[in-house]
Amino acid sequence: MKKPVFYTELAYVFGLWMLAWGTAGMVWADFGISMVVAPAYILHLALVDVWSWFSFGIGEYVFQAILLLLMILLLRKIKLSYFLSFLSAVFYGLLLDAGLALAGRVLPADPNFTVRLIVYIVGNLFVCGGVAMMFKTYLPPEVYELFVKEVVNRTGMKLQVFKTIYDCASLALAVVMSLLLLGKIEGVGLATLICALVNGTLIQWASKLFDKIFRFKDGFALREKFEKGSEKV
């Protein structure tokens, strides 16, 4: 049976949407958010009392801008696609703030443990599926995914292995930032640690599942242009 086509441009949109709304669900459930976004969340908590407009979404693309600069220094190169990835981060931040606003309106204000757990698990699955989707498209992913993709391509490491290393490093950074900026641990819990250990594997499984169900194909003849745009500038 021929697999249905899933256009890579649509994978980009779905990927960002799944990442943003999955993260919003995890924040609402309050068991500890994804370790990847935890540093940005800590940054948001540290600054929102000073600047009320400094939302989680804004914290996301501010932190990703810092990560982008670090990646440029580590890899010793600059590509046009790096700056396009930052635009993806801004788009993601807007979706995240919208998701948080919607969650506050449609989800119960005083949920029981079971409801929170279900929302958290579904949210994390959305996050893992979103990352897997982003690896199916030629369009620039967020800086988080770009960082992993660039290092994997440069070193030849397995995606599952490096993603797990990256997740654990993000978790450690979030704990340090929380203690230094807030004087206590916020946004990080036992569920965050579990995610750090298993999300690399879940992303790999999601990627294989998508490949079994769909045949990914470019809808527009833009891949070559984006690949050329990935050259050093």
Description of the molecule:
With 233 residues, the chain is mainly alpha-helical. The protein has one domain. The chain has nine helices and two strands, in the order E-H-H-H-H-H-H-H-H-E-H. The protein has helices spanning 8-29, 38-48, 56-75, 80-106, 113-134, 143-155, 159-182, 190-213, 223-228, and strands spanning 5-7, 215-217. The protein has a two-stranded parallel ribbon. Helix 2 (38-48) runs parallel beside helix 7. The model has no long low-confidence stretch (mean pLDDT 87).
Radius of gyration: 17 Å
* Overall SS class: mainly alpha
Distance between the termini: 45 Å
Number of helices: 9
The arrangement of helices and strands along the chain is: EHHHHHHHHEH
Please tell me what the overall shape is. globular
Overall tally of structural domains: 1
The residue fraction in helices comes out at over 70%
Tally of extended strands? 2
Q: Which residues form runs of ≥5 with pLDDT under 50? A: none
The major beta sheet can be summarized as: 2 strands, parallel
